[in-house]
Model the fold of this input.
Amino acid sequence: MQRVIGLTGTPAPNGMMDLWAEIFLLDNGQRLGRTLTGYRANYFHPAWMSGFVVYKYAINAGCAEVIRSKISTSASA
Done:
């Protein structure tokens, strides 16, 4: 595909967890990884869970800056 047109109700994600899908559509997983599961494992930890069900993830210390640097235009491939 030569062009992706992203239609969204808002240009900004609700948080760092929502960034993965938007960036994946643009670069096919080059910056933040090919899977959401891998992205969560690398940058987040379960914040609220019951048994094996995770209801909310929290970002690991220092990972917000790492993610921002990976998705900056200067870090593009």
Remarks:
- The CA atoms of residues 11 and 22 lie 10 Å apart.
